[in-house]
Amino acid sequence: MCEKHGTSQQQQGQQSATSTKAQAISSRRRRLWDLSRDTHCPVIGVCIPLAVLRRLMNKALGGIAQADDYEIHVGAIAECSYRNRVSEMLHEDLEQRYALTIKRFRTAKSIQALTQLWLDAIYQGDVAGAFWAGLTHPLCDVGLQEGMCRDMHMLQHQAGATVRADITRFNEVLEENAILTRELARHQERHTRHMQEKAQEIEKLQRHIVQLRAENIGKESTIAYLNADLLALKNMNLESSQPTNNHQSLRHKLDRMSARQTELEQKIRELKHKLAQRHSHDSQHAAQENTPSEQHNENKGNATHTTQAHRTIPITLQLQQKNVLCVGGRSGNVASYRDLIERVGGRFAHHDGGMEDNQSLLDSSLAAADLVICQTGCISHNAYWRVKEFCKRTGKRCVFVENPSVSSLARGLEQVSE
């Protein structure tokens, strides 16, 4: 009996060796169900991701598995022991997933070359595809298979330790990130506060610049005024240096010319007054005889009557040949302004307040004026402040008129007379 049992074991060993040798010699790669049960666990656990494994199991079973990852892993290992729908789907996925690695391992023509490819994969850190390609290679024997399983077992331990170290490092990085985030928030807050302070400082400097510009303009006006006074003094010195008889004759001649000019201006005002009354009378007479076909001419007559009515506004003020500067106002009313000023004996000058005229001419006009009328409703802000500052500094009389009409100008002149 012992001899028979020994003979039987010897025959089984010879058959196992023969089958192993046949597998090594054969060029056909082994299938998943051809592998030993010891290799199914690392193949399923390492070579197939859990999400892919769950999807393949759901597809093979025709539903949605309610089991957890470990139960699905154990079930897949059990199905890989023989050929069925699950093992075929898993084998097909592994073949497609690691096709390039399988192609590289197919070049190995000996056990030594296959072993070197596996060691190279371990060194490079890409063992999943190499593990599947090496186990299913025709030259993979029992020794190489056991060595690959031992290496994979140790790599999994190392991977677990690495994951734990990575988790610890990740937690440290999260804590460091929180500290840096708080520090960054503090820096941003400080930077924002600093920017606000700089913005306020810039605004303050800009206001100071505007103030300095205004002071500079005032100084320029003062210089122009002093230059005019200096020129007048020089002219007076020149006149005083001439002979006394010549000076007296010129003075008499100037008095005669002034009296003649006053007389002529009085006559002109009287003639303008009579002409205005005449136009008013003619307009009233023509309004009574107008026909419907002459309605357009009647509108023009009314406009003329309005203009003449402005000319007949009574003013008790007499300007006595004073220079009157009107700053601003409507361009269409300038002629009416001039007529009103000249009717009360003044000399009219106009500046549009910076709309079209050059603002540099405003200072010289202000220096030559005896009375300034500022049309506040039709003037630029810069010209308004320049007129106000000049009159306040020099003490010249300034009348501010809000409405650019002729009647408002007349009321302003009446305020001067009062």
Automatic annotation (TrEMBL):
Coiled-coil residues: 170-215
UniProtKB keywords: Coiled coil
Bias (Polar residues) ranges: 285-308
Region of interest (Disordered), ranges: 1-24, 240-261, 273-308
Domain of life of the organism encoding this protein: Bacteria
Pfam families for this protein: DUF2325
Keyword Cytoplasm tagged: no
Ranges of biased composition (kind: Low complexity): 7-24
InterPro entries: UCP020408
Family in the record: Belongs to the UPF0751 family.
Name of this chain's protein: DUF2325 domain-containing protein
Source organism of the structure: Undibacterium danionis
